[in-house]
Specification:
This is NADPH:quinone reductase-like Zn-dependent oxidoreductase. By secondary structure, the chain is an alpha/beta fold. The protein contains ten helices and 16 strands. Helix 3 packs across helix 4. It is globular and about 65 Å long.
Length: 327
């Protein structure tokens, strides 16, 4: 094994060109940590926020990447065998310690979830953080039940598509939005019952379909659309604030009585590896392999093309998940 590896390093916030490929020493795992040979890594808005200087508590230089998929390369405690397929996510990855944009990464064992699958690495790399967030948003954030209705704001994002899959699998009626009229077809093909063009006034069209409003709303765009999502939700319904595709996540001069519609509940969700049980991950991977479900399109980039991948992420150029490949 080589003593050095290729990694994408960010020295300071800036444009996509600020991500530079470098040769770094292969990191050594301390007790309680695991070294992973990274095969694929998902790209997330979190990393875009870090690159743009919008994230707090990040130290530089830093290898970005809040998730990684690959095999165990070394576990000094002997808990996980070498070659075990694993995903890792969150817990400071790509922020307080180096993350998944590299050929190897070292993470706390508490952030590692084992699995077994023969799916291609780029397919596997698209799953962990997206599935964790979609699953947690619908369960912890919304407590969505069979037969209920769900509005997804930002439906063609990777997270929006995954949430649609999980909600439809649960037996919910799904309404989902896109700002691009050409992407309405993609929403319908993915199983959305009511694709909606987002012109900023979605609530009125939602209530044409469901006069009392939806049972649940999943806000993935951010604070600019949150009031309209709340207005589309029925009394005693719940809106979960999970995503920030707009890069805006605060409400200036928040006055709850004036901001929140009467009787509508507002929740939030952010999760960790512990919020994705290993059996949930394995079940969804098996169902993807069997062709029973899909979390949406995957767009793979070699690590050498990380700058272009970040440009495409920032511009919202693709429907679905962007994934980096080290092999």
């Amino acid at each position: 094994m080589s003593t050095t590896m290729t990694a994408a390093v960010l020295d300071a916030p800036g444009p996509a060109d600020s991500l530079r490929l470098r040769r770094l020493p292969v990191p050594e795992p301390a007790p309680g940590w695991v070294r992973i040979k990274v095969e694929a890594f998902g790209l997330n808005r979190s990393e875009l926020h870090t690159r743009l200087g919008l994230a707090q508590g990040v130290t530089f230089p830093r290898v970005l990447g809040i998730e990684a998929t690959g095999t165990v390369d070394a576990d000094p405690d002997g808990v996980l065998p070498a070659g075990q397929q694993v995903v890792a996510m969150m817990g400071g990855m790509g922020r307080t310690f180096d993350g998944g944009y590299a050929e190897y990464t070292v993470v706390p064992r508490t952030q590692v979830i084992p699995f077994r699958s023969e799916l291609p690495w780029e397919t596997l790399g698209a799953v962990p953080e997206t599935l964790q967030t979609a699953y947690g948003s619908l369960t912890t954030g919304l407590d969505l039940r069979p037969g209920q209705s769900l509005l997804i704001r930002g439906g063609t994002s990777a997270l929006g598509l995954a949430a649609t899959t999980l909600a439809k699998d649960l037996g919910a009626t799904v309404l989902a939005t896109t700002r691009d009229p050409e992407r309405l077809k993609a929403l319908a093909e993915h199983g959305v019952d009511h694709p909606l063009l987002d012109d900023g006034g979605v609530a009125a069209r939602v209530r044409e379909i469901l006069p009392e409003g939806v049972d649940a709303g999943l806000e993935l765009v951010g604070t600019p659309t949150l009031p309209d999502t709340l207005a589309a939700t029925r009394v005693h319904g719940t809106v979960c604030f999970t995503g920030m595709l707009s890069n805006r996540w605060t409400v200036p001069d928040f006055y709850p009585i004036g901001y929140l519609p009467r009787g509508v509940r507002l929740a939030a969700y952010s999760g960790d590896a512990a919020d994705l049980p290993a059996e949930v991950l394995q079940r969804h991977l098996d169902r993807i392999a069997a062709g029973e479900i899909t979390l949406g399109p995957v767009h793979a980039y070699p690590l050498a093309d990380i700058q272009q991948a970040h440009r495409d992420l920032e511009d919202g150029r693709h429907v679905g998940k962007l994934v980096g490949r080290t092999g």
